[in-house]
Amino acid sequence: MNAPALQFKRHRFDIEDVRTMRRMGVLSHSAKTELVDGEVYDMPGDGSLHRDWSDELGRWLHRNLDAAYRIIPASTLVLSPHNAPMPDWYVYPASIGTRNVSGPDVSLLIEQSDTSPAYDLGEKALLYARFGVRDYWAIDLKTRRIVVHREPTQEGYGFAKPFQAGEAVEAMLLPGLILDTSLFRVG
Question: Which of 132, 133, 137, 153 has the maximal Cβ count within 10 Å?
Answer without folding.
Answer: 133
